[in-house]
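FAQ: What does a multi-protein file look like?

Like this. Sequence, then tokens, then the next protein.
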Amino acid sequence: MKNSKNIRLIELLIVTAVAFGATLFKSVCILLTGAEFTYSEFIKYPMIFMGSLTVNKLAITALVIYFIIKPGRSLKELGFSWYWTDFFLSIVLLIVVELATRLCSYLLYEVYYVTTNNYLYAAPKNIGFIKGGINVWSVADKLVNPFFEEFFFRAYIISEVKFLTNNLGLAFFISVTLQGMCHLYQGFGSALIVSVSFIIFSLYYI
């Protein structure tokens, strides 16, 4: 059992580093230095830029699946299943996320203003690559990214940390914190607000 946990810990660290190591490093650096993305390469070659993102996400997803099925495990262990009620539940979930995000945004603005007497700038920054127009790869990324983030942060991270530590609360915390930190490039306020949705999605998953 101990050897199995060690192997899965190593696999978890490898996949996490490959999947979000660069993004996490870049996000923290941008937050600390105040640098901004110009995305000149995206402006010149949008299909190549978005295509590389999509291919990378698909490759990482395949790597995670390999680590799961290699020892004979099933994707169902991660909650990967389909039910006809999922469609309706997803609509309810999106409504809850939207309302909660708006409420938390309002509260965050108010608390920040009361404590600092300044307005909080929480509009997302450095998202020019998202608004770069429509092409085959930008559409593909919009389809792949939600599945990729939910599969990795929710299904994989939570299940593996829970197995390694036997602590669901810690698994929940690591999942939300890691995903939130990967969005720090948008600014601290924006990352904090979007993390509300990560909290709700993680609560729903567990």
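And here is the next protein:
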Amino acid sequence: MAVTGHIEEEFNDLVQTAEEAQSIDDAERDWTAATEMARQLFGKLDHRYAFCLERLAETFWRAERLAEAEPILVGLLDVYESMMGGDHADVAVVLQNLAMLYHAAGKMDLAEPYYGRACKIRVRELGVQHPDVQNLIGNYAKLLVALGRESEAESLRQDMHSVTSGKWNRSGHFKAIDLTEYARSKPADAQQIMPEGDYQFGASVAGQRPVKLPANTAEHEIAQTWTQLMSAGDTALEDENFASAERKYQAAYEILQANSIEDDRLTMTLESLGEALWKQGKFEEAQPYCEMTLALYENLLGPKHDDVGIVAHNLAMLYHANKNNAKAEEMYKRALSIRSSIVGSSHPESLSIMTNYANLLHSIKRDVEATNMRNHVRSLSSGRWSACGQFKALTAPQAKQTEDARTTGTLVYERLVETVEKHGKNRKDKSKR
């Protein structure tokens, strides 16, 4: 049937009501109505129908009504596979949710193949270090242990690496650099030039001039000092000692400046310094470092490189936080254009840019455009039960809300699995008696 603007507006209003439901019962009622309306208006092979199906399944999941969620997820998987093919990233999200459901329900043999398919796709799309992938592999390993396949579980765990959530968006160029690349071995009798404790030079100390190492200082000693400072900064950042991280990175930056070093270390240091300032809410101070990083990457990699898009997103968030709305919009558009052309418009990083852009539009009273952007995000998203872990928030309260939303589904899942495993153990104990 032909869908008029008025009817589609009614559908969007119903979806918005469902999103804002204050209770499970209200959410079930509204998502059931929205799902049926989408089926009648748009048909089953439509992203809006699929979106409503997934939200309805999620509602049952959060209510721990697994038997009711199961047929909805099975139907949703069929819809996504028909629309996108069996290897699409959104298909993998549904596979993961279905695997979790079977796992929580104690249907281990049914869960295992879905975990396997989901892992294969999500590792390929996001990489093994992505938080969603880490969570997926961890759940799969628990299932294998429950099935008595400990050696396979251990092999999976060996593929997992520590990941710090809430990271400033770092470019691939940044990540490809090995810190030890610049730390050449020093002669055994060389004087130790790295003092203990916090460095006290640089912008953090008023009136202190940048430190320039002596003219006869060997390149390997400069490199060693820079590497130690960066490593200390990274450790402080991971420990959430952001002020200390700022001082270390600032010291590393000033050493590069004073010794006229403009290789890869400069962009790496600038990005780290910008991140440390961002995490302290020092948006105005972070802005010029991010601008310098963007200019360097544009000259080095070209204006449409993926790393340029990543840094452009960071700069857009800074402009946004500093209420430089015109420049923020320009950078959001640029970041979205680059990133969506490379990773796709439905990728979590593209959705993150669109979400921030919608927030900007709302803040400058362009509510119609903001609503359209948010609806577009919903249509592209597969309604992930576990958020992607991307650093989206612009303020501390928003960061707390994001983290709460990200962990809710995992906590529910963990509680259910613990109950199932305990129940299984009790049954085995009783059978032995």
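Q: Is there any per-entry metadata?
A: Some entries carry free-text notes. For the entry above: The chain has a mean pLDDT of 74.
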